[in-house]
Write a structure and sequence with these properties.
By secondary structure, this protein is of the alpha/beta class. It has helices spanning about 40-45, 75-85, 100-110, 130-150, 155-160, 175-185, 190-200, 225-240, 255-260, 260-280, 285-295, 300-315, 320-350, 360-365, 370-395, 395-410, 425-445, 450-480, 485-490, 495-510, 510-520, 530-540, 550-575; strands at about 5-10, 15-20, 25-30, 50-55, 95-100, 115-120, 220-225, 245-250.
Amino acid sequence: MVFDARIEVSAGRSLHVRDEGGGEPVLLLHGFTGSGATMAALAETLLPEHRVVSVDLMGHGESDAPRGREAYALERCCQDLKAVLDARGIEHAHLLGYSMGARIGLGFALEAPERVLSFVGIGTRAGIADPAARATRRTQDDRLAAEIEARGIAWFVDYWMALPIFSSQSRLGAEALEAARKQRQRNRSEGLAGSLRGVGAGSQPSLFEALPRLQLPVLLVTGAEDVRFTQAARELGKWLPDAKLEVLPDAGHAAHLENPAAFQAAWKRHRTRVSAATSSPEPGSLGAWHAAARPATLPASLVPVAVGTAVAVAQEAGRFVPAMACLTAAVSLQLATNFVNDYADFERGTDDEDRLGPPRAAQQGWLTPSALRIGAGFALGLAALVGLYGIAVGGWPIAVAGALALLCAWAYTGGPYPLGYHGFGDPLVFIFFGGFAVVGTHWLQAGAASSGAFASALPLGFLATALIAVNNLRDRPTDVAAGKRTVAVRLGERRARRYTAGLVLAAYGSLPLIALAGAGWLAALPLATIPLAIPVLQAIRDASGRALNNTLARTGRLELAFGAALVASWGAVAWMG
């Protein structure tokens, strides 16, 4: 059944809404001068699988066109959209917006993330960050709004459609362009002028600083011929925790209209990504074990082994079999720690329905605590078995390091005095995923200590500790309630944020020591990862709760990239002789 009528969103304010189809809802938001009708072709492609709600935004189409700038402000637009969802009985929906509609949709996703399943923005920006540039644009928008009112809708449509940004739409053909012209002419001068004044790029507040908080799958779509907005989308993606960019060929600003087949393919990839992120594994399945293994944390065990091996190779002491033994032991210990953490937190009641982090296997019923104990025992046993080889090759230092690693993998959250619950987690991570992993890997291959290994262990220890610090910053409220005294709990929120950011910065501050230890100027290669560190630092400063889940993943990727750059540094040292 199709609903096609006006909805009163507040006293004296009504929007025209078309609601049709079934399945997960998609809220369509058109661009400036458009209406729900201009999204009809796109709606048709979505209807077989989705419930599609098309809205004429305030001042457009058959919706109201009130007087006054404030009637169109972004905050009011967000309130209107929430009222539409409430009126249609929709708890949450995918948001799909084009140009102005995408800007408004992004604002709504930030304002009410609990109502949004995912966000797709076609040709969008997050506002103008520079206040002076925004003020200039606002003056230009006000001037154009006055001209619309003075010269009428026909003049404005001719002016608008002749703008260079829309020149690529000539590929749509004369008939489609004429239909678009007639649609635009059905708008009212006062509505377009009000929209331009209230929610134009000059009036909309910049959203950039709020973007790291947006924990939603985001798809940014641009046309390859729309160079300016493609660059803007690339910049936007740096701020968003979970964003993908699709640049469609043979398309300009209205990429969904100019290359609909490519857009449909991009949409399907996006939906597959969203479904994979939200689907639950079958109890006892490989997917359940994959979730319990927490692959996002594995760089903390992989990277130090690679770096320790690279230092050994640079010193002509690299050996394949000891390196593989270190890798197997490190990953096994990481898996054991994760499995113990999963069942121990569940049994202590730390993981409950209020958990902010990703779902845990025991909490969700995907794996039983006893199964996780067996998995942890198997992983610890494999690490111990490999450790016997390490002791035979590396002697008593490996025996001591291995015994401590096995003990701490279990005692981190297991046993009568879980170390992670009493603030010892951070120093243990620094020691084991920095010093022991890098230096031990080098020792097992070279048979001797090295200043290069010790210096290279520092930044990896800092970044591995940053991983656990981000995790604990996210969980601080629930840890306080559970009596868990992590470093983040002990420091308090403000100092915990500074501490976590300091760990990331300390990794870069360690590079001069690596240079002095033999890498020379090549130690500067990890500076290339600074663009990955910036959004992490911004999120550490601003984000909280579940928004830090993606920050955790980004910190893991930063450590992986930093470690790869360190491997390249020492590899270049070896190559240059």
